[in-house]
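PT: before anyone asks, these are the final sequences, not the draft ones from last week. 433 residues across everything. Please model them as a single complex and drop the result in this thread when it's through.
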Amino acid sequence: MTDTRKLRSSGNWRTVYGGPLLIGVLSTAGLLSALLYEGLGRYFSWLALGAPIVLTAWFYARRRRA
Amino acid sequence: MVHTWSSLISTLFLLLLCITGLPLIFHHEIDELLGYDPKPEVVQPGAVKRSIDEIARTALANDPGRVLQYILWDKDEPNNIIAFTNNKVDGDPDAATLRAYDAHTAKPLGSVGGGPMLIFLKLHVDMFAGQPGKLFLGAMGFLFLVAIISGVVLYWPFTRRLSFGTLRDKSRRIAWFDWHNLLGAVTIAWALVVGATGVINTLAEVMLSQWKANELTDMVKPYAGKPPPVHLASLDKTLENARKTAPDMTVSFVAFPGTPFTSSHHFAVFMRGDTPLTSRLLKPVLLDGETGEVSDARDLPIYLKALLVSQPLHFGDYGGMPLKIIWALLDVMTIVVIGSGLYLWVVKRRKHRSHAIVVQPSLQPSR
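LR: through. Structure below.
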């Protein structure tokens, strides 16, 4: 599993930092939305800040299946 | 090198902060459960709110020999009025007593705070070591930020050949290495914000004394050299005047003359807005302690605004229960990042040492 993935990953900045960067931007938006907008902003913050947790669970589940 | 040392020095304290911070996310719920968060009685039909002067008298009668420092209106329970008494107006914050009073009956409802959550809070804020302890934890928080940023730089050479989210179970070391990278990567923004706002919070006293030395001194210039008020003005009249100055705002708390939040001559009534953001941005109205007339009202300087806005971003208390649960899970993920980082360092070091022992003898003959 690891070896095929190693081959697939070419090691440019997008494959390395792309995922974390996206999660980072999403989390920051979530942190601010609940502070700036009542109601909708709150719901968005739950989704956006929950994303790192859901993503981690997904990576974990996928690892188990492989 | 930067990543290793900034993390190592701060590791134990960061673990302390993360672990004590975990129950503090839910301190409101826990305090309520343990009876440290008294609730007002059900409002009887036709009941009228008591005057604040009466509540102040009741509070002083309840704690004889003490003085009032602050009266605070609970944001979530407007019928809960919390009175702070202390042995003197500028007494040690740890010596303050907080009691809740019912807005309609002026009945004492019980003391606020205290209990196990206060111990967690003290450990989290200053480790029972006062201002030096607080500033020390601030420095540890700063190292945490350095560790995160240096970790981002190291992320490149270490994960360049792996796809995002790779979790291998080849060996215990590799498994923890992958978890360290994955959890570290997905929590970066949250950890940076909670870390940075925590550091800002450690500077609260420094910022407050800065404000008192500059803005506040300037606001109370006409009173320089005057003796402090002997007979305090009526609180209800004072509050009414403050509300007139900021009609679209609500009273958050009033600081009595001589307390750390105001001058020795003035009541400071801190007004707040009502959105999640503006409810944090307090505006002080200064009122003459003897007459209750408005002396001055100015917005807080930018650094105190930054402090006030940074607080919810540190506590996670501004988005309901789901946000608190998310905050707790992200905190647990951060604990795993710190713990696995420490583990990886120990394993690497052990390997180096055993390596050195094996290598040394073979080097000896050549010397």
